[in-house]
Structure formats: C-alpha cells, structure tokens
Amino acid sequence: MSMKLSKLPDRTPVKLTTTLMPNLAARLRDYADFYAETYGTREEVADLVPFMLEAFLDGDADFRRASRAGGAKDSSSNASRHSGKAPTSKGLDGEP
Q1: How far is CA 44 from CA 26, 33, 95, in A?
Q2: Given 5, 33, 69, 75, which residue has the most CB atoms within 10 angstroms?
C-alpha cells in the first residue's frame, strides 16, 4: 500500500550564528523599521533575515539555473519553502 502524501522533509530549524559589520547591522535595523512602516507590524531583524535570504536566493536567476543543471545544490527544493516558519536566531540587533 502506498500513501498519497510523501514523507515530510526535515523541518528541524538550523541555528546560524554570524558576525555583522556595524553598518550592515544598522541597515538591517533600518530595513526592519521600513517593514514596520509598510506593514504596520514590527518584526525583529532576526525574524526577517531568514525570509530576506530566501528571497535573495529565489531571486538569483543564475543560482536557480545552476541548481536545475545540477551545478549548485539547492537543498531547499525538497522542503516546503514558504511554510511561514523560518528558523530564527536572536542577537542580530545587539540582543542576546
């Protein structure tokens, strides 16, 4: 017997810690302010970054072409990419 629904992909969040230059950290805070002005909802920088990175990768036509051709591995193609739950990592705006 075979199920219609395939096995769900790994949805375990991966924590990534990075160090930012002060000017980039300030620009990300400005972006969060712009997001709040646009949508009327304040989101933390750390909560926006995963979605910003995903939008960047989705918008990179060369990366998409390379992924389809097998040249660049895009491991997200097996996962539900826009589930609304992105991994978060606090600390990008100076908080622990």
Answers
A1: 13, 9, 10
A2: 33
Task: Decide: pTM greater than 0.70.
Answer: no
Tokens of 44: 């933390």
Q: Is residue 37 part of a domain?
A: yes
Distance in angstroms (rounded) separating the CA atoms of residues 24 and 11: 29
Structural domains of the chain, count: 1
* Domain assignment present for 12: no
User: What is the spatial distance between Cα 84 and Cα 51, in angstroms, rounded to a whole number?
Assistant: 9
Cβ neighbours, 10 Å, residue 67: 17
Residue 52 falls inside a structural domain:
yes
72-94 pLDDT per residue, tens: 766 665 444 444 444 444 444 44
